[in-house]
Amino acid sequence: MSDSLENGSAGRRPDLLLIASSETDSNIYYATKFLAPDSFIFLRARGKTFLLMSDLEVDRARAQSSVDQVLSYSDYEERTKKRGIDRPETADVVQTLLSEHGVKELTVPANFPLEYGDALRTRGYTLSIKKEPFFEERALKTPEEVAAIRKSQIAVEEAVDEAFDLLRRAEIKDGLLYLDGKVLTSESVRAHLHLRMMEKGCIGQHTIIACGVDACDPHNEGSGPLRANEPIIFDVFPRSSESRYFADMSRTVVKGRATDEMKRLYDTVLEGQELGIRQVRSGAHGKAIHEEIVQLFEKRGYHTGKTGGRMQGFFHGTGHGVGLDIHEPPRIGKSDWILKEGEVVTVEPGLYYPEIGAVRIEDMVLVEKDGCRNLTTYPKKLEIG
To answer: Which structural domains are found in the chain, ordered by start?
Structure first.
Protein backbone atom coordinates (compact mmCIF):
# COMPACT_ATOMS: atom_id res chain seq x y z
CA MET A 1 0.00 0.00 0.00
CA SER A 2 1.24 3.48 -0.82
CA ASP A 3 2.70 5.52 2.01
CA SER A 4 0.39 8.37 1.01
CA LEU A 5 -3.23 8.45 2.12
CA GLU A 6 -4.19 10.03 -1.18
CA ASN A 7 -3.40 7.01 -3.34
CA GLY A 8 -4.37 3.45 -2.55
CA SER A 9 -4.59 0.40 -4.75
CA ALA A 10 -6.05 1.00 -8.23
CA GLY A 11 -5.79 4.75 -7.64
CA ARG A 12 -8.32 4.68 -4.79
CA ARG A 13 -7.61 6.33 -1.49
CA PRO A 14 -6.98 3.72 1.23
CA ASP A 15 -9.62 2.96 3.81
CA LEU A 16 -8.79 4.49 7.18
CA LEU A 17 -9.70 3.64 10.75
CA LEU A 18 -9.06 5.79 13.81
CA ILE A 19 -10.21 5.14 17.37
CA ALA A 20 -9.28 7.99 19.68
CA SER A 21 -10.46 11.04 21.59
CA SER A 22 -10.38 14.21 19.54
CA GLU A 23 -9.45 16.21 22.64
CA THR A 24 -6.07 14.48 22.69
CA ASP A 25 -5.60 13.21 19.12
CA SER A 26 -5.26 15.86 16.42
CA ASN A 27 -5.63 13.45 13.51
CA ILE A 28 -9.15 12.38 14.42
CA TYR A 29 -10.09 16.00 15.14
CA TYR A 30 -8.70 17.04 11.75
CA ALA A 31 -10.71 14.27 10.06
CA THR A 32 -13.99 15.03 11.84
CA LYS A 33 -13.89 18.60 13.20
CA PHE A 34 -15.72 17.13 16.19
CA LEU A 35 -14.46 17.61 19.73
CA ALA A 36 -15.21 14.98 22.37
CA PRO A 37 -13.42 13.83 25.53
CA ASP A 38 -14.01 10.10 25.03
CA SER A 39 -12.72 7.85 22.26
CA PHE A 40 -14.92 7.33 19.23
CA ILE A 41 -14.62 5.56 15.88
CA PHE A 42 -13.83 7.21 12.54
CA LEU A 43 -13.92 5.25 9.30
CA ARG A 44 -13.14 6.33 5.78
CA ALA A 45 -14.36 3.59 3.46
CA ARG A 46 -14.77 3.72 -0.30
CA GLY A 47 -14.15 7.47 -0.19
CA LYS A 48 -16.92 8.25 2.32
CA THR A 49 -16.45 9.15 5.99
CA PHE A 50 -18.34 7.83 9.00
CA LEU A 51 -18.48 8.29 12.75
CA LEU A 52 -19.69 5.59 15.09
CA MET A 53 -20.85 7.44 18.19
CA SER A 54 -22.36 6.65 21.57
CA ASP A 55 -25.92 7.75 22.28
CA LEU A 56 -24.44 10.45 24.52
CA GLU A 57 -22.75 12.17 21.57
CA VAL A 58 -24.55 11.00 18.43
CA ASP A 59 -26.91 13.97 18.03
CA ARG A 60 -24.19 16.54 18.72
CA ALA A 61 -21.90 14.78 16.26
CA ARG A 62 -24.60 14.91 13.58
CA ALA A 63 -24.94 18.64 14.12
CA GLN A 64 -21.27 19.55 14.44
CA SER A 65 -19.00 17.05 12.66
CA SER A 66 -17.77 17.31 9.07
CA VAL A 67 -18.19 13.62 8.13
CA ASP A 68 -20.63 12.22 5.60
CA GLN A 69 -22.64 10.15 8.07
CA VAL A 70 -22.87 9.73 11.85
CA LEU A 71 -23.99 6.29 13.01
CA SER A 72 -25.28 5.11 16.37
CA TYR A 73 -22.97 2.78 18.28
CA SER A 74 -25.91 1.21 20.10
CA ASP A 75 -27.61 0.41 16.79
CA TYR A 76 -24.48 -1.38 15.61
CA GLU A 77 -24.16 -3.10 18.93
CA GLU A 78 -27.65 -4.57 18.40
CA ARG A 79 -26.73 -5.62 14.87
CA THR A 80 -23.66 -7.33 16.26
CA LYS A 81 -25.74 -9.25 18.79
CA LYS A 82 -27.84 -10.56 15.91
CA ARG A 83 -24.64 -12.16 14.63
CA GLY A 84 -24.71 -14.33 17.73
CA ILE A 85 -22.36 -12.29 19.93
CA ASP A 86 -24.12 -11.75 23.25
CA ARG A 87 -21.63 -9.31 24.73
CA PRO A 88 -19.95 -7.60 21.81
CA GLU A 89 -16.62 -5.86 22.32
CA THR A 90 -15.65 -2.71 20.43
CA ALA A 91 -13.78 -4.75 17.83
CA ASP A 92 -16.93 -6.84 17.21
CA VAL A 93 -19.00 -3.72 16.65
CA VAL A 94 -16.35 -2.27 14.33
CA GLN A 95 -16.33 -5.57 12.43
CA THR A 96 -20.06 -5.20 11.82
CA LEU A 97 -19.48 -1.73 10.39
CA LEU A 98 -16.56 -2.85 8.23
CA SER A 99 -18.49 -5.84 6.90
CA GLU A 100 -21.28 -3.55 5.72
CA HIS A 101 -18.79 -1.66 3.58
CA GLY A 102 -16.82 -4.67 2.39
CA VAL A 103 -13.60 -3.48 4.01
CA LYS A 104 -10.84 -5.99 4.79
CA GLU A 105 -7.69 -3.79 4.58
CA LEU A 106 -7.23 -0.67 6.67
CA THR A 107 -4.61 2.00 7.20
CA VAL A 108 -4.22 3.09 10.82
CA PRO A 109 -1.94 5.64 12.55
CA ALA A 110 1.17 4.60 14.45
CA ASN A 111 -0.55 5.33 17.77
CA PHE A 112 -3.55 3.13 16.98
CA PRO A 113 -4.52 1.28 20.19
CA LEU A 114 -2.80 -2.10 20.32
CA GLU A 115 -5.87 -3.66 21.95
CA TYR A 116 -8.01 -2.93 18.88
CA GLY A 117 -5.23 -3.66 16.43
CA ASP A 118 -4.70 -7.15 17.81
CA ALA A 119 -8.44 -7.81 17.99
CA LEU A 120 -9.04 -6.77 14.37
CA ARG A 121 -6.11 -8.79 13.06
CA THR A 122 -7.42 -11.80 14.96
CA ARG A 123 -10.71 -11.28 13.11
CA GLY A 124 -8.92 -11.40 9.76
CA TYR A 125 -8.31 -7.75 8.95
CA THR A 126 -5.09 -6.44 7.45
CA LEU A 127 -3.83 -3.27 9.14
CA SER A 128 -1.15 -1.09 7.56
CA ILE A 129 0.50 1.37 9.92
CA LYS A 130 1.31 4.84 8.62
CA LYS A 131 3.72 6.97 10.57
CA GLU A 132 3.26 10.69 11.03
CA PRO A 133 2.29 12.73 9.19
CA PHE A 134 -0.81 10.54 8.96
CA PHE A 135 -2.72 13.19 7.02
CA GLU A 136 0.04 14.78 4.97
CA GLU A 137 -2.30 17.53 3.83
CA ARG A 138 -2.43 18.79 7.44
CA ALA A 139 0.90 20.53 6.89
CA LEU A 140 -0.53 22.74 4.13
CA LYS A 141 -2.69 25.28 5.90
CA THR A 142 -5.82 26.74 4.33
CA PRO A 143 -6.43 30.48 4.58
CA GLU A 144 -8.94 29.71 7.36
CA GLU A 145 -6.31 27.74 9.28
CA VAL A 146 -3.74 30.53 8.87
CA ALA A 147 -6.32 33.00 10.19
CA ALA A 148 -6.94 30.74 13.21
CA ILE A 149 -3.21 30.52 13.94
CA ARG A 150 -2.83 34.26 13.57
CA LYS A 151 -5.76 34.82 15.95
CA SER A 152 -4.01 32.66 18.56
CA GLN A 153 -0.81 34.59 17.93
CA ILE A 154 -2.54 37.91 18.53
CA ALA A 155 -3.68 36.60 21.92
CA VAL A 156 -0.09 35.56 22.69
CA GLU A 157 1.34 38.95 21.79
CA GLU A 158 -1.24 40.88 23.80
CA ALA A 159 -0.80 38.65 26.84
CA VAL A 160 3.00 38.73 26.65
CA ASP A 161 2.94 42.51 26.45
CA GLU A 162 0.81 42.60 29.62
CA ALA A 163 3.27 40.24 31.30
CA PHE A 164 6.17 42.41 30.20
CA ASP A 165 4.36 45.37 31.71
CA LEU A 166 4.75 43.68 35.09
CA LEU A 167 8.52 43.72 34.51
CA ARG A 168 8.45 47.32 33.31
CA ARG A 169 6.65 48.44 36.47
CA ALA A 170 8.76 46.32 38.80
CA GLU A 171 11.38 47.84 41.10
CA ILE A 172 14.81 46.35 41.59
CA LYS A 173 15.79 45.62 45.19
CA ASP A 174 18.81 43.52 46.14
CA GLY A 175 18.94 42.11 42.63
CA LEU A 176 15.32 40.91 42.65
CA LEU A 177 12.18 42.29 40.98
CA TYR A 178 9.42 43.63 43.22
CA LEU A 179 5.93 44.71 42.22
CA ASP A 180 3.50 46.14 44.77
CA GLY A 181 5.78 45.00 47.56
CA LYS A 182 5.96 41.36 46.39
CA VAL A 183 8.76 39.51 44.65
CA LEU A 184 7.97 38.67 41.05
CA THR A 185 8.54 34.97 40.36
CA SER A 186 8.37 32.77 37.31
CA GLU A 187 5.25 31.23 38.81
CA SER A 188 3.45 34.51 39.48
CA VAL A 189 4.18 35.95 36.03
CA ARG A 190 3.20 32.64 34.40
CA ALA A 191 -0.12 32.63 36.28
CA HIS A 192 -0.79 36.20 35.16
CA LEU A 193 0.08 35.29 31.56
CA HIS A 194 -2.12 32.19 31.59
CA LEU A 195 -5.06 34.14 32.99
CA ARG A 196 -4.74 36.83 30.33
CA MET A 197 -4.55 34.23 27.55
CA MET A 198 -7.57 32.40 28.95
CA GLU A 199 -9.53 35.64 28.82
CA LYS A 200 -8.56 35.82 25.15
CA GLY A 201 -9.74 32.27 24.45
CA CYS A 202 -6.39 30.47 24.63
CA ILE A 203 -5.14 27.85 27.07
CA GLY A 204 -1.46 27.87 27.98
CA GLN A 205 0.41 24.90 29.40
CA HIS A 206 4.09 24.45 30.26
CA THR A 207 4.78 28.10 29.41
CA ILE A 208 8.45 28.86 29.86
CA ILE A 209 9.48 31.87 31.94
CA ALA A 210 13.04 30.92 32.79
CA CYS A 211 15.59 33.27 34.32
CA GLY A 212 19.39 33.09 34.30
CA VAL A 213 20.91 29.62 34.40
CA ASP A 214 17.45 28.02 34.26
CA ALA A 215 17.09 29.43 30.74
CA CYS A 216 20.17 27.48 29.61
CA ASP A 217 18.00 24.37 29.71
CA PRO A 218 15.69 25.12 26.75
CA HIS A 219 12.65 23.29 28.17
CA ASN A 220 13.04 24.37 31.79
CA GLU A 221 9.78 26.14 32.61
CA GLY A 222 11.50 28.31 35.22
CA SER A 223 10.86 28.71 38.91
CA GLY A 224 11.55 31.08 41.77
CA PRO A 225 12.32 34.80 41.91
CA LEU A 226 13.05 36.73 38.73
CA ARG A 227 16.35 38.55 38.94
CA ALA A 228 17.42 41.89 37.54
CA ASN A 229 20.17 42.20 34.93
CA GLU A 230 19.79 38.55 33.88
CA PRO A 231 18.12 37.16 30.74
CA ILE A 232 14.56 35.86 31.06
CA ILE A 233 13.28 33.62 28.26
CA PHE A 234 9.54 33.72 27.59
CA ASP A 235 8.39 30.82 25.38
CA VAL A 236 4.61 30.97 25.02
CA PHE A 237 2.64 28.40 22.99
CA PRO A 238 -1.07 28.24 23.87
CA ARG A 239 -3.87 26.48 22.02
CA SER A 240 -7.08 28.25 21.06
CA SER A 241 -10.01 26.73 22.91
CA GLU A 242 -12.21 27.71 19.96
CA SER A 243 -10.24 26.62 16.88
CA ARG A 244 -7.78 24.16 18.51
CA TYR A 245 -4.87 25.82 16.66
CA PHE A 246 -1.66 26.73 18.44
CA ALA A 247 0.58 29.76 18.29
CA ASP A 248 4.23 29.87 19.38
CA MET A 249 6.50 32.80 20.25
CA SER A 250 9.72 33.26 22.22
CA ARG A 251 11.33 36.46 23.42
CA THR A 252 14.34 37.07 25.64
CA VAL A 253 14.42 40.14 27.87
CA VAL A 254 16.51 41.65 30.63
CA LYS A 255 14.99 43.87 33.29
CA GLY A 256 17.75 46.34 34.06
CA ARG A 257 21.12 46.32 32.31
CA ALA A 258 22.42 43.49 30.17
CA THR A 259 26.14 42.77 30.15
CA ASP A 260 28.12 43.46 27.00
CA GLU A 261 28.56 39.70 26.54
CA MET A 262 24.82 39.23 26.82
CA LYS A 263 24.13 41.97 24.29
CA ARG A 264 26.50 40.34 21.83
CA LEU A 265 24.87 36.96 22.40
CA TYR A 266 21.44 38.47 21.78
CA ASP A 267 22.52 40.29 18.63
CA THR A 268 24.02 37.08 17.26
CA VAL A 269 20.85 35.05 17.85
CA LEU A 270 18.77 37.80 16.26
CA GLU A 271 21.12 37.83 13.26
CA GLY A 272 20.75 34.07 12.99
CA GLN A 273 16.98 34.26 13.18
CA GLU A 274 16.82 36.95 10.51
CA LEU A 275 19.07 34.81 8.31
CA GLY A 276 16.76 31.83 8.78
CA ILE A 277 13.62 33.82 8.00
CA ARG A 278 15.20 35.13 4.78
CA GLN A 279 15.91 31.57 3.67
CA VAL A 280 12.40 30.19 4.23
CA ARG A 281 10.53 29.64 0.96
CA SER A 282 8.82 26.85 -0.94
CA GLY A 283 11.42 24.29 -2.02
CA ALA A 284 13.99 25.29 0.59
CA HIS A 285 15.69 22.51 2.54
CA GLY A 286 15.20 22.76 6.28
CA LYS A 287 18.56 21.14 6.93
CA ALA A 288 20.37 23.72 4.78
CA ILE A 289 18.68 26.60 6.62
CA HIS A 290 19.67 25.10 9.98
CA GLU A 291 23.27 24.55 8.89
CA GLU A 292 23.62 28.14 7.69
CA ILE A 293 22.62 29.39 11.13
CA VAL A 294 25.00 26.94 12.82
CA GLN A 295 27.82 28.16 10.59
CA LEU A 296 27.01 31.81 11.37
CA PHE A 297 27.15 31.11 15.10
CA GLU A 298 30.48 29.29 14.70
CA LYS A 299 31.90 32.24 12.76
CA ARG A 300 30.83 34.55 15.56
CA GLY A 301 32.74 32.36 18.01
CA TYR A 302 29.79 30.54 19.55
CA HIS A 303 30.63 26.85 19.47
CA THR A 304 28.33 23.97 20.32
CA GLY A 305 29.34 20.99 22.41
CA LYS A 306 29.61 19.59 25.91
CA THR A 307 31.43 21.54 28.59
CA GLY A 308 31.59 20.00 32.03
CA GLY A 309 29.10 17.36 30.92
CA ARG A 310 26.52 19.96 29.85
CA MET A 311 25.55 20.92 26.31
CA GLN A 312 26.21 24.52 25.39
CA GLY A 313 25.74 26.57 22.24
CA PHE A 314 23.00 25.84 19.69
CA PHE A 315 21.85 22.29 20.33
CA HIS A 316 18.23 22.19 19.20
CA GLY A 317 16.50 22.52 15.86
CA THR A 318 15.81 25.83 14.16
CA GLY A 319 12.09 25.30 13.74
CA HIS A 320 9.02 23.10 13.54
CA GLY A 321 5.55 23.12 12.07
CA VAL A 322 2.65 24.59 14.07
CA GLY A 323 -1.03 23.77 13.71
CA LEU A 324 -3.37 21.47 15.61
CA ASP A 325 -0.21 20.23 17.38
CA ILE A 326 2.47 22.49 18.77
CA HIS A 327 5.14 20.30 17.16
CA GLU A 328 4.21 18.87 13.78
CA PRO A 329 5.84 18.53 10.35
CA PRO A 330 7.80 20.06 8.75
CA ARG A 331 11.10 20.51 10.57
CA ILE A 332 13.98 22.94 10.14
CA GLY A 333 16.87 21.07 11.69
CA LYS A 334 19.24 18.17 11.22
CA SER A 335 16.75 16.07 9.24
CA ASP A 336 16.16 17.22 5.67
CA TRP A 337 12.60 18.42 5.11
CA ILE A 338 11.73 20.33 1.96
CA LEU A 339 9.46 23.25 2.79
CA LYS A 340 6.22 23.70 0.86
CA GLU A 341 3.99 26.68 0.22
CA GLY A 342 1.25 26.85 2.83
CA GLU A 343 3.19 25.39 5.75
CA VAL A 344 3.48 27.34 9.01
CA VAL A 345 6.85 26.93 10.73
CA THR A 346 8.76 28.53 13.56
CA VAL A 347 12.21 30.03 13.23
CA GLU A 348 13.74 29.93 16.70
CA PRO A 349 17.51 29.64 17.01
CA GLY A 350 19.04 29.91 20.45
CA LEU A 351 22.40 30.08 22.21
CA TYR A 352 22.97 28.84 25.76
CA TYR A 353 26.05 29.43 27.91
CA PRO A 354 25.68 29.31 31.71
CA GLU A 355 28.55 31.76 32.24
CA ILE A 356 26.94 34.35 29.89
CA GLY A 357 23.25 33.61 29.70
CA ALA A 358 20.72 32.25 27.24
CA VAL A 359 18.84 33.72 24.29
CA ARG A 360 16.04 32.29 22.15
CA ILE A 361 14.00 34.36 19.70
CA GLU A 362 11.07 32.77 17.90
CA ASP A 363 8.61 33.84 15.25
CA MET A 364 6.08 31.85 13.20
CA VAL A 365 6.15 32.27 9.42
CA LEU A 366 3.91 31.14 6.56
CA VAL A 367 5.90 29.52 3.74
CA GLU A 368 5.19 31.18 0.41
CA LYS A 369 6.42 30.58 -3.13
CA ASP A 370 9.22 33.15 -3.08
CA GLY A 371 9.74 33.70 0.64
CA CYS A 372 7.59 33.76 3.74
CA ARG A 373 5.13 35.93 5.62
CA ASN A 374 5.86 36.54 9.27
CA LEU A 375 2.77 35.87 11.37
CA THR A 376 4.51 37.34 14.44
CA THR A 377 4.52 41.10 14.87
CA TYR A 378 5.72 41.52 18.45
CA PRO A 379 8.94 43.60 18.70
CA LYS A 380 12.31 42.17 19.66
CA LYS A 381 14.17 44.15 22.28
CA LEU A 382 16.56 42.87 24.94
CA GLU A 383 16.45 45.46 27.72
CA ILE A 384 13.04 46.22 29.17
CA GLY A 385 11.95 48.96 31.54
So the answer is: 9-138 (3.40.350.10), 140-384 (3.90.230.10)
Number of H helices, E strands in the chain: 9, 24
Burial of 277 (0-12, 13-18, 19+ CB in 10 A): middle
Residue 6 confidence (pLDDT) above 90: no
For residue range 199-255, list pLDDT tens digits in order: 999 999 999 999 999 999 999 999 999 999 999 999 999 999 999 999 999 999 999
For position 8, what pLDDT does the model report? 46
How far is CA 187 from each of CA 72, 143, 176, 193, 285, rounded to the nearest angstrom?
Answer: 46, 36, 14, 10, 39
Residue 31, sorted as left (phi over 0), alpha (psi -120 to 50) or beta, turns out to be alpha
Given a contact cutoff of 8 angstroms between Cβ atoms, the answer to whether 120 and 94 are in contact is yes
Is residue 356 packed enough to be buried (19+ CB in 10 Å), middle (13-18) or exposed (0-12)? Answer: middle
Residue 152 zone, left/alpha/beta (φ > 0; ψ -120 to 50; rest):
alpha
